[in-house]
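Sample intake sheet
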Amino acid sequence: MINKATILGRIGNKDHKQTKTGNDMTSLSIATNRKYIDKQGAQRENTTWHTVYFFNKLAEIANKYTEKGDLIYIEGEISNKKIEDANGVRWIYSITGSELKLLPNGKKNVAENYDKPKEPVDPFDDLEIPF
């Protein structure tokens, strides 16, 4: 059987803490969007929020290198938890991340770094050739 989630979205909230056993844990809320046209012909956008948990080394990386608004690609396993309270029974779904890729997020300063062509470097420019 397969239990795999793949999402590409923007980071909302971020929280980093230690588990009871002393391991690092970072949770990210990730927004994914779906655009569609409704029955009246108007363009709509639906946002879904996903909770993703990273542990140990991935938790350290997620905590150190991500911030709100960043574009991120995540793979992981879907898990759920049953909660019973005064309102009845609820199921909470989350993703336990096993892979994360930080992507250029479209901010102007980041886009400039990726879009500028690199100047060619002449490796012999500073060498003195004796002949």
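Comment: The chain has one domain: 5-115. DSSP finds two helices and five strands in the chain.
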